[in-house]
Amino acid sequence: MTSGADGSARYDVAGFLRELDAAFAAQAGPDAAERLVADAMEGSRAAGDLAAELTVLNEAMGLHRSIGRHREAVAEAREALALVGRLGLDGTEAHATTLINAATAMRAAGRRDDARSAYAEALAVAAPLFGPRDRRLAALHNNLSILDSDGGDHAAAHAQLEQALAILASSSVDPATDIDVAATHTNLALVSFALGREEQAQSHAAAAMEIFRRGGSEEDAHYAAALAGHAEASFRLGRLADAVDGYERALAIIARAYGEGSDAHAVTSENLRAARAALAAAPDQGPPVASPPAEPAASSPHADPDPAPSPDPLTGLALARSYWEEVGRPMMRERHAGLLRRAAVGLVGHGSDALGFDDALSRDHDFGSGFCVWLTAEDFAAHGAALQADYEALPATHRGHGPRVATPRASGGARRVGVFAIGDFFEGLTGYAAAPAADRPHEWLGLEEATLAAATGGQVFQDPHGAFSAARNGFRRMPEDVRVALVSRRLGMMAQAGQYNVPRMLDRGDGEAAWLAVGEFVNAAASAVFLLNGPASAGYLPYYKWRFAALRALADRMGSRLPGVHPRLSDALRLASAACLGGAGFGEGGKGAGPARGGLEAAIEDACAQVAAELRAQGLSGSDAAFLEHHRGELAARIGDDWLKGL
User: Fold this and answer.
1) Which residues touch 317 (CB under 8 Å, ≥6 apart)?
2) Among the residues of 336-460, which ranges form H helices?
3) pTM over 0.85
4) What is the distance, to the nearest Å, from the Cα of residue 178 to the centroid of all Cα atoms in its chain?
């Protein structure tokens, strides 16, 4: 604490910034940074130093955005912008910087409209203040590119990044070692992939890696983004071992810099899981995904390039990707070259193959060679019928699988592969051509989680236009109020069915009712696990027969929240047979006394205790109550929508 020239108290904000930089440089982790920020906030406010408080708020919103605490970041953004007004700083560099930080926090929180408004205001304030080579303008263009990418406009995102790269290259003392230049190359690599420019993407990813190596910045937190970009390039080019290595190294840096609960950690963990799965499924790593082997001569230009008599042991997703790369894409390159630059392709929707849970037993129905092509409404109206006809003329078998025999529920208007208009595809799955707006929570509550799992699962092999990914991501971004309200509902069912009614029904000797209560408890707990992991990174709880497969897969992800719940749910189901309906451990009088009942109730309470601890860790509840119903009031207090709050 120091004094200004006028005798007023001044907080040592420069010292705070030095300590914070040192903590990040030492990779002390988010907890250390959080303590420094909290202490600085308290100190600046105690001193009444509003200028220092503004600096601390800007640092706080950046930290909380990075570690996935978006509600706090957005609240701090609003506080900071209000403080700019109180200090009379409108139109200043401090105003522009705060607007950029606030917009970035809002973008990360999924508030795209608020973010775009803040970015536009930031650009208007910054343009007359910053010089044409000011690196802060480059940061603004970088952030605008992310917003454009999130909205599916990858061409606009690419243009923003090129402006950012030009500013950085012209202002840098040494672009060959400049990590901001490297980060922009990484972003250009990812956007280039979205545009279908794979060679350009690989070039940008390699450039980013080289800059980090030259600059000796391989432990810098930004290096994780470069590693992830390079891993993405490797994955798309079929270099699966390189992809796994890149994601593993990126994840280690992210864990140290931002923590295992951050959004970056969750997304990178999921990418690593997919890369490992692809590597495990690839025989001798298989042919590169983006560079398939030449097709052998055949009587038809689209003949099956691999009519092997025995099927390859491929998953449905791997088969779909191979069929697209080796058969579908050559057809489109020859007959629909213009559409190839705009069409999205992949496998998304109902079925164990799209969800990634299929095995040899799954191949008796709705399995075989096929993929989805998604077109905008305009492209579908002009070209959909012709493209569908060419799709149907493709060979019926591939790599020993096929022809695809569809069951009645996957035929006609409910077909799972072929050519679709984007809006029609999602309307067929969910009843909505696009995700409901955040201010229509009743529509979100009407969507079953299994439906959302089908709409957001699977894989997209390419999407140069970005329209399909934008629509799909809309369903992934469940409004926070809706998520919290659903968590509250699941807590209520876990408390009522599991903690209250299982022992109550057993005391009454009504084993059948107790059995049903166990089922309700398990379903509610499984849903709570996915909701507390966050749909944007974990997806949604699927159809009932795949729920435990999904729980196991989620638990295997690094940084997964509540990985210990599903074993206790398994225990509950196993013990319920004896405790509720008789057998070893079933007590006298039909009341489920004995070891089975004790184990069942212990499994229920342990699962509930894990969920309660996670509620506290996420700041959703401060209650120490063991009975989950007692946490619901705290969750309700965190819901802004009055209609949801009153449910």
Assistant:
1) 347, 353, 354, 356, 458, 459
2) 337-340, 352-355, 377-392, 422-430, 441-445, 449-456
3) no
4) 29
